[in-house]
Design goal:
Distance between the termini: 40 Å
Shape: globular
CATH topology: Rossmann fold
Largest sheet: 7 strands, mixed
Number of helices: 5
Strand content: 25-35%
Order of helices and strands: HEEHHEHEEEEHEE
Bound molecules: adenosine monophosphate
CATH architecture: 3-Layer(aba) Sandwich
Number of strands: 9
CATH class: Alpha Beta
Mean pLDDT: 94
Number of domains: 1
Length: 187
């Protein structure tokens, strides 16, 4: 029978295997950005499954009743998570993409600003919403997503990411709920 030590070792091995599948692409989409490319992870069913198991644990810990994904890479994790847990999925999209009535939140980019939107009937008072994306960088996008949720009267249960680029300080901007990540990148 497998003992606790063996099990921990196996989990660490699995963790190592799937972390290795994420590749860093230098200078994409512009010079100076080290882009975390998750597509090799999505192509590897074992890695994808391991990641989804970790997201399930996070969602359960957070007490979420709704899973919100941030366009577009957040959908890759938010959608299977919602289906696995039997919870509603709601999309948070770039301005102009959602067809029905929306609320909007603006946030700053390095140069200029951007707007994300959510349908007004996506969440309601009493909902506990887990906001999911692939990477947390400066936190501007996730902070704006949190504002959309609270504008509609719901509560942010947490923010969940595959990778938190902790050296960019995003966590410090997300003060209203716990920030979860599968991997912290410190430099
Ligand atoms: P931010 O608002 O600065 O936290 O940026 C987060 C958004 O930009 C997320 O939707 C990420 O998918 C994307 N992003 C930012 N930096 C990176 C990076 N180095 N690699 C991959 N995606 C990134």
């Amino acid at each position: 029978m497998e003992n606790h030590h063996d099990q921990t070792e196996r989990m660490e091995l699995e963790m190592h295997t799937w972390i290795e599948t994420i590749r860093t692409v230098e200078d994409f989409p512009k010079p100076g950005i080290m882009f975390k490319d998750i597509t090799p992870l999505l192509q590897n069913p074992d890695a994808y499954r391991a990641v989804m198991e970790a997201f399930v644990e996070i969602a359960q810990t957070s007490g979420a009743t709704v899973i919100a994904g941030i366009e577009s890479r957040g959908f890759f994790f938010a959608c299977p998570l919602a289906v696995t847990l039997g919870l509603p999925f709601v999309p948070i999209r770039k301005a102009g993409k959602l067809p029905w009535q929306t609320v909007s939140a603006e946030y700053d980019l390095e140069y200029g600003s951007a707007v994300i939107e959510m349908h007004t009937d996506a969440v309601t008072a009493g909902d506990r919403v887990l906001i999911v994306d692939d990477v947390l960088a400066t936190g501007g996008t996730a902070e704006a997503a949190g504002r959309l949720v609270t504008t509609l009267g719901a509560t942010v249960a947490g923010y969940a990411f595959l990778k938190n680029l902790t050296f960019l300080g995003g966590t410090e901007r997300l003060l209203d709920a716990p920030v979860y990540s599968l991997v912290d990148v410190t430099e």
